Amino acid sequence: MKRSALFTLLAAMAATALGQDYSETGQYKNYISTGMPILLIAPDAVSSGMGDVGAASTPDLFSAHWNNAKFAFVEGTMGAGITYTPWLRHLNVGDMNLFYLSGYYRINNRSVAAAGLTYFTLGDIDQTDVDGNTIGVLHPNEFAFDVTYALKLTDDLSLGASGRFIRSDLTNGQTISDGSSNTSTKGANSLAADIGLYYQKEIDKAQSFALGAFISNLGAKLSYSDDDNDKEFLPANLRLGGRYTNRIDDYNKVSVMLDVNKLLVPTRPYSRDGQTYVTRYANNLTEYNNIGVIQGAIQSFNDAPGGMSEELQEIQLSVGAEYWYAETFAARAGYFFEHANKGGRQYATVGVGLKYNVFNFDLSYLIPTTKISTSPLANTIRIGVTMEMIPEK
Does the 3-389 domain belong in CATH 2.40.160.40? Predict the structure, then answer.
């Protein structure tokens, strides 16, 4: 593979990651590295318009990503939808896109089955030989397919469980050379599971609240080669959230939401200029690479080299609000915050929604608020179209 082609591929992969190595001042940022971070990107145009909140937001077609237990409280008998998200448009990249398909079917009054497909394409990359002759085209892509079952345990509480098949194929099996050695690559496969809890309660006829807890992407590591020490954790994640809704009158309804988010992945060895110097694995990176998935999830709450102050930096916050007029038009806004040492993504979001008969049309827009937060979704519009069969009340 020609060096420029490989660089293009790696740059695209890096742009997908949820953090950056260095701030503008050159200070090292000890972000948590995972494979296939696309699994954490908001796939829909509803929650992405509200600062990426979703643990306890109103149950909808896209609940599998935010809290699968919410499916038990969807109003419809069945539904399906698709969301389209362009990628790196602010860099004039025209063929990188994220698609998300979702659907559900109500089995009975207490249970719902659902399925979803996430597909991410990095476009086409020309493969050339050392003389610059085109010898093929790479089609790097990633996808995940999940199935969900949600059950009402009581009239106010539900439980959700999901299984997910994951495939990440970034090199199409190419052999990559660094000049001194060759590495054979392969597509990485994995299986993962999600589990969620959701509680909603009416305070009175006008007010209600909801609480949610969701663990996602807990599964086997990804391996892109035959090297056992070269495996990537899936982005296992814990999301906790709440929502308060006030129906002002027959036409106006407002909801406010808050999510707290943390990766269940051990903090990688802390280093500066490539020299590892502060971590329990300072002298044994193989030991770090061999941490088990469950062990890593447990110790992720107490393994940051900087102690509790750094552990707190690993918590991401999302706040959002949604206004509905006559259950027909929605306006949304929100904000997402991630500490600069853990990736530095900080951005505001806005969105709108329109409901017509059985169809919903949603748009969202992301606005980075810091220079170090070069989100791959900066200044892009996400578009969603859904259809739900909701019985008349």
Answer: yes
